[in-house]
Amino acid sequence: MWAPAKPTAPTSKMDSRYTSTAGLGDLNQLSAAIPATRVEVSVSCRNLLDRDTFSKSDPICVLYVQGVGNKEWREFGRTEVIDNTLNPDFVRKFILDYFFEERENLRFDLYDVDSKSPNLSKHDFLGQVFCTLGEIVGSQGSRLEKSIVGIPGKKCGTIILTAEELNCCRDAVLMQFCANKLDKKDFFGKSDPFLVFYRSNEDGSFTICHKTEVVKNTLNPIWQAFKISVRALCNGDYDRTVKVEVYDWDRDGSHDFIGEFTTSYRELSRGQSQFNIYEVINPKKKGKKKKYTNSGTVTLLSFVVETEVSFLDYIKGGTQINFTVAIDFTASNGNPTQPTSLHYMNPYQLNAYGMALKAVGEIVQDYDSDKMFPALGFGAKLPPDGRISHEFALLPCCWNTKAALCRVRVDLLPANHNGNPQNPYCDGIEGVMEAYYRSLKSVQLYGPTNFAPVINHVARYILW
User: Which ranges carry the C2 domain (predicted)?
Assistant: First the structure.
């Protein structure tokens, strides 16, 4: 049997999150890169085409992702082959980086494997499904069911896609430390101590992950409580060594080393106890002085674990996202007949407003259950009397009975679709685009720029 190629992970995008720092001398602010939310996509199929003569199909699912720039489809990975079934539940999952702010296009191709060849053209095509990762995540229970297409005149069955967030190292801890009888390092005073935390690496090296603030002129400091992610502290390995160094801050940056100790997340998680009182050891002093015991002690005062809530937690908890469009029709945008205008009516491509509507709307619509979007305008003269309005529905409003059932009280609906702001609903982002371009041909750009009416409009519906 053909062994499919192993999935290859895409390059992970990163955002930055900052830790607390001493903020003095050469103790620069640190940043810890946190990867995007990772989701695991499971694939099942029902009623696939039977392409084998004496048995059932031997299906495999191949996932493709579309590039952002060149729009080319790139193979991301393949499931295992399951012999002789039209209703496969694939064991091998697809692990994807999830970005709410991006439209991540996916394509699932299904084949009946007939040989050991990795060349897909050697196998029978069973159909395909196009969707976005946001569409899977935004579905009820993060479970998307779609018909398989791609073979004319054939019912190709159904694919079931389920997304689950990988719950790895999502906890954070809030800790506070104090110290007792630290070594005196300053000639005319005591010490100005601070702590530096390091997590160990597989090769035995250490990576800095946090610095406390400096507490001035004391040998018995109490540092402020600080919050750090478990990922940054130990990368999810509760027994990984955490080294803590104690320094006396100096203005010129030549901070004096007082001593160090080691611990672990598991030890720290015991909280305030005799297990979390640490002797601060200076190896050089210990080697020189036979009667040396320590350079003071550091005590854990508190340890509280907090779970970091993700965007997916809100979605799974029932959070609804409703998308409202408000378009600026003031004359400051320029004459729509001129190429310099943001509203330029180019017959061959989208203008600036059209591109913005499409880019945002195609992402947000995956999370809106009824796909009915209020679309408003402001800053224009409206036909037929030329009145200036800062709160009007785009013309014509692509309204249907779905809006009445989902969002709008029947007694508020006008008898016709004349731009009444009580009836601003458009069917999907394509309906918004259509209403925008038709409104652009009907209204006269004017002014001034007044956001308040459309903001109050949205507020009324939120509070209703």
Answer: 16-146, 155-278
Instruction: Give the number of other CB atoms < 10 A from CB of residue 31.
Output: 12
Q: What is the tens place of the pLDDT at every residue in 426-441?
A: 888 999 999 999 999 9
Task: Please state the domain count of the chain.
Answer: 3
> What are the tens digits of pLDDT across the range 149-183?
999 999 999 999 988 876 567 789 999 999 999 99
Residues 181, 294: Cα–Cα separation, whole Å: 10
DSSP letters along 259-311, please?
A: EEEEEEHHHHTT-SSGGGEEE-B-HHHHHH-TT---S-EEEEEEEEEEEPPPH
Half-sphere exposure of 353 (CA within 13 A, CB side): 25
Strand residue runs (E) in 310-423: 325-328, 372-378, 380-382, 387-389, 392-393
Please give the residue range of the domain that contains residue 232. 171-307
In terms of residues, how long is the chain?
Answer: 464
285 and 182 assigned to the same domain: yes
Q: Are both 135 and 185 inside the same structural domain?
A: no
Per-residue pLDDT reduced to its tens digit, 284-309:
999 988 899 999 999 999 999 988 78
Say yes or no: 52 and 110 in one domain. Answer: yes
256 lies in the same domain as 368: no
To which H or E segment does residue 353 belong?
helix 352-364
Question: Do 245 and 388 reside in the same domain of the chain?
Answer: no
CATH of the domain at 211: 2.60.40.150
Residues 246 and 382 in one domain: no
Residue 414 corresponds to which tokens in the numbers above? Answer: 């006008």
Is this model's pTM higher than 0.90 or not?
no
What DSSP state is assigned to residue 36? P
